[in-house]
Amino acid sequence: MFGDKLLCVLKALRMAACTGLAIGFAHAPATAQDAQQNWSLDPFGRVELGIVLSESEDRDDELIINGDGGYLRGQIGVTFGNEKTEVRLEADRIEVERFGSATGRDSFNRDRLTAGITQKLDDDWEVELRGRIYDDLVTVESSDTDETQVSARVEFEPESAHRFTLRGTWRDREYDDGDGPGGASSKGEGARVDFEYRHRLGRYHYINFDLRAEEITSDNPLRGYSRESASISYTRPITSDLRVRPALELRQTSFDGRLLPGSAPREDTQIVPEVELLWWTGNWRAEAEAKYIFANSNDPVRDREGYRFSVSLGYVF
Prior knowledge:
Layout: H1 4-35, E1 40-58, E2 64-66, E3 69-81, E4 85-98, E5 107-120, E6 125-137, E7 145-159, E8 162-175, E9 186-202, E10 205-218, E11 225-237, E12 242-259, E13 265-281, E14 284-297, E15 304-316
Antiparallel strand pairs: 1-2, 1-3, 1-15, 3-4, 4-5, 5-6, 6-7, 7-8, 8-9, 9-10, 10-11, 11-12, 12-13, 13-14, 14-15
C-alpha cells in the first residue's frame, strides 16, 4: 500500500500534469514560430488483426476457464513537432469477439484517446506529459472500467547503451457495476509508478528491467487493490526483420476488501514466463507470443495455471 504522503504527492503531480499539458498545447505553435524552427505535421495509423488462445485450470482440474477469441484493432493519430518538441494526438479502438467455447462475455470493445507533449531538455534528458481516456477497459479489479489518467515521464539517456525512465500516473476509474449509491457506478482512484532500465547491446538488441507499483482505492471493497511487479526481458535480432524476446514477470496482488473465510484478504502471486517473435518488414507487423501463467492464491478458485498464445498481423501507415 502507498502511504498518504505519496498519494498527496501524486495528486499534486496530477494537477501539475493537467496544467502543463494545457500550457504545452497552447504554447507549442507560438514557440515554433518565434524560433523559426522546422515544425512538421505527421499523421499515422495502424490496423491489426489477432487471435488469442488461452486456457487455465485449478489444481484439481475442476474449473477450466477458456479465453479463446479474436480481435480487430484500429489506431489513427497525428504528431506535430520538431527535433525538441512533439505534440501527439491519438485514437485507438479494439473490437474483441470471443469464440463459442470461451468463458465470460461474448464480445466487447475498448476505446482510448491520448494527448501528450514531449520535450527534449538536452542530449540526455527528456520529459513528457500525457493524458488518456479509456472506455470499457478490462482492469485488474473489473471487466468493465472507464478511466481517466494523467502521467508525467522523465527519461535520462546519458549514452545509447543506457536509458532510465521514470513515470508517475494518476488514475480515476468508474465501474459499470451498479454497486454505487442508489445503484450508480462505483468509483476508484489511485497511483501507479513505473521504473524502467534499458541496456542496449546493439541494433534491436536490448535487456530491459521493469518495476511497477500501483494501487486503487474505492468505497466499493471489491474494487480496491494494490500490486507490485517486476519483469526482465531480452530482445535479440535473428535477421534484419525478425527478433525474439523471451521475458519473465513476477506479480504480487493484494485485495484488502475481498475477504476469504476467516477474514483473510485475498493475496495472489503470478509468475509468467513468455517468449515473443516479432517480424517487422516494411509497413507490415507480424507478432506471435506464447506465455504460461503460474498463479498461486489463498483463494482456491484463483490458485491455477494455464497458457496463452496469440498471433497478430498489422499494417502501419
